[in-house]
Amino acid sequence: MVETYSWHTDYVKAVACSDMLSIAASTGLDAQLVLWDTEKAREPLQIYPLEGSSYSLSMSSDGHLLACGTTSKHVQLFDTRGTCKLPKIKGHEDNIRALVMNSEGTLLISGSSDRSFKLWDLRNHSKPLTTYNNHTDSIWSLWVDKNRFHEVYSGSRDGTVRKTDLRTEISTLLVVEQEPILKILPDIDGDTMWVSTPEKLHRWKLGDPKKPFQSLDRRPGIVEYKCLSNRLNILTRNSEGHVQLWDTCSGTCKSFGDDLDPEVLKKTELEQLAASIETKNWVPSWFKVSINSGSLVLHLDNPSCFDAEVLAEDLKISKDKDGDDEVTEKSADEFVDVTVNLGAHVLDGIFSNWVIGYKDRKEQAQGKSAEIENITLGPHINEEEEEKGMKWEERKAEKKNRRKQRKDREKAKRHTKPFVLPPNTQVTIGEVNSETNVSRGLYSKAISDFLGEEKLPQWVLQSILDNMFKCRVSSTISFTISSTGPGLEPMPRVKRFNATRLLLVEKILKWIAANIEIPAISSQSEKQDLIEVLCNSRPLPPDINLATVLQLYWRSSIKALVLEFRLKETSSLGQ
Questions:
Q1: How far is CA 18 from the centre of its chain?
Q2: pLDDT confidence of 380, banded at 50, 70, 90?
Q3: Closest CA to 25 of 51, 52, 45
Q4: Which residues have C-beta within 8 Å of that of residue 563, sequence separation ≥ 6?
Q5: Hey, which residues does 151 pair with through a beta bridge?
Q6: Mean pLDDT over all residues of the chain?
């Protein structure tokens, strides 16, 4: 996917582009024909209203002439230079479903639901040059080699593909399918043809209409998704109602709801299904999701992809100090406070092959006159330039923050296993035009195909090679805590703390139990069982962290977090 343009208000059914100019056109069910500049314009160059929905579009090679077929039974012509208004082509008795134009823009072939296709001379189109009635149902697809415009391939709702020679008007049956023909595309060699139907994609040997020699089944596309609040999982539903649970860090998925009745699963809202497995802790968003292609695609952008950190023990990727995968009871406490930046850890997994290849090439280049070629995409990120305009205190805090991030990242790498993604996972490297905000894909590869010689964005290189990245979310949260309610001696003064945002409420409870007196209770564990922590008068679950409290309970970015504690209402001591 090189460009993504959003303008249409309904399904896009046809796209055409110029062979010579950087322009393209799109049309669909919203009865609009939209002209685009594929190099720089985010907004449409021109919008042409149509008299009905459109399923077909064709453009001359020079991009000056556009033909658009509509449900109004005629073809509308447009001069993209806007120099004149062109008349309509009339002659069909039903919707226009397919169009092909020659390179010069002088001849046009139109296929219709009236079971015919017609040849037109665009210099004088008062009536068709010839009409062909070779099919028994609607014609949904046409294909013509622009350099050999005398041979027309037509695909019909009747399940057949025919080749018609315009010079002799002889029609030859090439393919017989059991379903309507959606699209046809002959191979370059001219001996085979790809044919798509609602359920299958077949490759046929021309001249043998009995059976295809290659078949690809249609894969149901993802039509709906729901991100869980932990940002580690996504629920998806495909066009057949099947629900899957995805792991955003490993790129793997598993079936969801197998214990439910399939019909119940299809009718249950994805939001409701997600709520049944929703976790308590909230994690900042570190990716964007798109399902436009029918697949689940995660977009990682700088610096937002570095905004989320979690505890290594929550990911179950900790390893002991000897490098073993399993965490022993003796070593488990060492990793409780190891934090993992999700975006940085995923980038390490994506480009693990790249790093190996790059280091091998770097070792080979050492001691030789040859140097490794430039591997950087985009502008170089200069920390000194970024710090210009900052006050001295801000620069000092920024440097301190970077040192801490690097130290935490190195610690996480030492004590955690890397994410292992499927080797066939496709990765697209792209860039965003700063003026138009349009994303452009530069190249795409499977994870296993990276060799260490591909160019990567500077911010990616800094993360995977130097453990450096810019996290916009503060790693600590300031809060105050005080007692409230009967049964407890008031604290002499409000306590102020500055703690990691991943600190669990359970640990706050332990501190409270160790620092307060409850009559007739001496055991710290008993005290802990009798008290609860509140935020905005709401009791907090012990297994949520401060980041979740701040986001879901406090909900203020201005005031410092205020926590209180009291005896539980079920406790007789508070009566």
A1: 28
A2: very low
A3: 45
A4: 479, 480, 481, 482, 508, 533, 534, 535, 540, 549
A5: 165
A6: 84
**Distance in angstroms (rounded) separating the CA atoms of residues 61 and 106:** 11
Please work out, in degrees rounded to the nearest 5, the angle formed at the alpha carbon of residue 407 by the alpha carbons of 405 and 408.
65
* Amino acid 436: pLDDT: 56
Whole-angstrom Cα distance, residue 300 to residue 348?
13
The two tokens of residue 155 are 């695909």
Contacts of 350 (CB under 8 A, 6+ apart): 421, 425, 427, 447
At 263, list the tokens: 């019909």
Q: What is the 3-state secondary structure (H, E, C) of 317-350?
A: CECCCCCCCCCCHHHHHHHCCCEEEHHHHHHHHH
Phi and psi angles of residue 200, each rounded to the nearest 5 degrees, phi first: -140, 160
Separation CA 44–CA 4 (nearest Å) = 12
> HSE on the CB side for 128, CA within 13 Å?
16
> Which pLDDT does position 575 carry in this prediction?
47
Query: Do residues 15 and 3 lie in contact, with contact meaning Cβ atoms separated by under 8 Å?
Result: no
What does the block give as tokens for 391?
């006050």
- Six token digits for residue 77: 């012509």
Question: Is the whole model's pTM more than 0.90, yes or no?
Answer: no
Q: What is the mean pLDDT of residues 292-298?
A: 91
pLDDT per residue as tens digits for the range 505-553: 999 999 988 888 777 777 888 888 899 999 999 999 999 999 999 999 9
